[in-house]
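A quick aside before the break. I want you to see a complete sequence-to-structure record at least once, exactly as it would be stored in a machine-readable document. Don't worry about memorizing anything.
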Amino acid sequence: MIRMEIALFLILAFVAFVYFSAGRKHTLLHKTFSELLIVMLIHLVLDAVTVYTVNHLDTVNRLLNDSVHRLFIGTLVLAVYLFYQYIAILVEEETGKQRHLDIAAKIYLAVAELGVLLLPIHYAVTEKGNYSDGIHANVCYVSMVFYLILCIGTLLSSWSQMDQKKKMAIGVAFIIEVCVSILQGFNPTWLISGMGLTLMTMAFYLTLENPDILRAQLVEQKMSMLYLKSQVNPHFLYN
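That is the input. The structure line, written in tokens, reads:
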């Protein structure tokens, strides 16, 4: 399993390098996606560490194991919050509607992170592998459901106004995370939550944040402006 986390980290690190090295406007959407990439890279490192520590409970210090798990789940909750923020900002830019659910999202984030720090951690030991379970681990699932509901609430009144490509990106991200969460829930020893979040990040990157796509859109906008200018100038001279 650690090999998967390493592979996911290397893929996302390359994406982050391309993303941060590309010239672009520093909009709120860009800032949010940048934060998401950084949090995801940290989360994948912690994911790999916890996969090792949870399967070596007899050799790894319990305090160290618990601390790493708290950081791992804390970054997972933060990443899911940033996914909600990204979608909410996307909808706001597309439709002009304000983000009315932001307060609820931030309050839940504070409560969930507090729970991550204080709730007791329990580890299930099985023949197929070990994993953390109980109320502390359930913070992950509750966070997924809560922010999914907020995203749906944000999208319901604006879905018909959204660009088709953006709707596709959001839909793909939702399907990926729901499928991965269900698989993780029924097979807790698989430890694939990091894969689900990475695939969601890639879905947004490939469809909405890819520098080549943004560059093509910019060129298209400039061509449209030049075309309009060429149409206006002859009429101005004629008049």
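Two observations worth writing down. Confidence is low (pLDDT under 50) at residues 214-224. The chain is about 80% helix and 5% strand. We'll return to this after the break.
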